[in-house]
Amino acid sequence: MGIFKQDGSRLAKTAWPTSAVDPLDVPKVLTENLYDTRDYGRNDPVPEGSIKRLLLPVGAIVTQRWINAQYPLATVAAVTPDTGAAAGGEVVTITGTELDGVTSVTFDGVAGTALEIVSSEEIKVTTPAGTAGPADIVLVDDAGNVTEAAGFTYA
């Protein structure tokens, strides 16, 4: 028994006609059960939802490409208010999508404080002190950082 090429020649174990695989498609075996969540209802206190269901069991095989797809990049729709005192201390509400993975928010490179993940569409953060003028807002997230250029103006 053996494996043969189209021309009839036997294929050696070390001569498989393959090419390099995209590292994002390398299979990975899960070592623990994974769950996803959904909202229990309108006033569910958990931003990503409190009802859990088994998504993948131990031993399931996934690729890095599939893992990456589970973490979409956040978007910013609005910053309210978008102006505040240079002394800082303004509570800012940022709305958008995929915000529940944000771990910090910076204003021109200085971290805001009291970050609150309200939902996947809304976060609140208190501005740090800054210099008068426009400041870039950066949402730090393991899916990738998102910059809202001149998203806040210090007065």
Can you tag this structure with a few keywords?
single chain, mainly beta, five-stranded mixed beta sheet, Immunoglobulin-like, 45% strand, 13 strands, four-stranded antiparallel beta sheet, 155 residues
Verbal overview:
The chain is mostly beta strands and 155 residues long. The chain folds into 2 domains: 49 residues, no CATH class; 80 residues, Immunoglobulin-like, CATH 2.60.40.10. The strands form 4 sheets. It has a 5-stranded mixed beta sheet, with no helix packed on it. Strand 12 and strand 13 form a beta hairpin. It is elongated, with a radius of gyration of 24 Å.
Mean pLDDT: 89
CATH class wording of the largest domain: Mainly Beta
Query: How many runs of DSSP E, i.e. beta strands?
Result: 13
Low-confidence stretches: none
- The helix/strand order is EEEEHEEEEEEEEE
The number of domains:
2
Give a quick account of the main beta sheet: strands, pairing sense, barrel closure: 5 strands, mixed
Kindly report how far apart the N and C termini lie. 80 Å
What is the number of helical segments per DSSP (H or I, 4+ residues)? Answer: 1
- Portion of residues in beta strands equals over 45%
Q: What's the architecture of the largest domain in CATH terms?
A: Sandwich
CATH topology of the largest domain: Immunoglobulin-like
Whole-number radius of gyration?
24 Å
